């Protein structure tokens, strides 16, 4: 069955794997998912990620190595904001602050995918993909 919201599916896989206390989670790879994984790694929400190409596979697989602290997932909440049915865009002045700066919002801008803090520094707005804390 085809998935219409691949990013929403990716975030749900992460949520479900952490609730089940899995060490890794696999998802079909794309440039946007790799960019999101890179941000999650840089911000300390996941331990690492890798691109795996199984023999005979059409599409590579993105494997995330999840992170836990004292038995609890580091990612407390990961939430999709802009959905295929209703896109959410924000200018630099309207970029959200997640839990008063304790979390991050991942933004797709004209300068690439970045956190809300980086977007404010670069003075660009864009589509709010998700929030993480």
Describe the structure.
The protein is of the alpha+beta class and 133 residues long. Helix content is 25%, strand content 33%. The protein has 3 helices and 10 strands; from the N terminus they run H-E-H-E-E-E-E-E-E-E-E-H-E. The chain has helices at 6-19, 31-42, 116-122; strands at 24-28, 46-52, 61-66, 68-69, 72-73, 78-80, 89-90, 104-109, 112-115, 126-132. Strands 6, 7, 8, 9 and 10 form a 5-stranded antiparallel beta sheet that branches. It has a 3-stranded antiparallel beta sheet with strand order 1-3-2, covered by helices on one side. A hairpin with an 8-residue loop joins strand 2 and strand 3 (61-66). The model has no long low-confidence stretch (mean pLDDT 95).
Short summary:
The protein is of the alpha+beta class and 133 residues long. Helices cover 25% and strands 33% of the residues.
Task: Please report the distance between the alpha carbons of the first and last residues.
Answer: 31 Å
Biggest sheet character = 5 strands, antiparallel
Q: Estimate the global geometry from the Cα principal axes.
A: globular
Query: How many helical stretches?
Result: 3
Helix content: 10-25%
Task: Give the SSE order as H and E letters.
Answer: HEHEEEEEEEEHE
Number of separate strands = 10
């Amino acid at each position: 069955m085809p998935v219409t919201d691949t990013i929403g599916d990716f975030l749900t896989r992460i949520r479900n794997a952490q609730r089940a206390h899995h060490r890794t989670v696999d998802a079909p790879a794309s440039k946007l998912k790799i960019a999101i994984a890179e941000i999650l790694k840089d911000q300390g929400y996941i331990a690492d990620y890798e691109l795996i190409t199984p023999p005979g596979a059409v599409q590579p697989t993105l494997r995330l190595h999840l992170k836990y602290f004292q038995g609890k997932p580091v990612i407390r909440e990961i939430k999709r904001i802009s959905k295929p049915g209703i896109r959410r865009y924000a200018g630099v002045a309207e970029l959200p602050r997640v839990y008063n700066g304790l979390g991050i919002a991942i933004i797709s801008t004209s300068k690439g995918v970045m956190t809300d803090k980086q977007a404010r520094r670069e003075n660009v707005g864009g589509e709010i993909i998700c929030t993480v804390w």
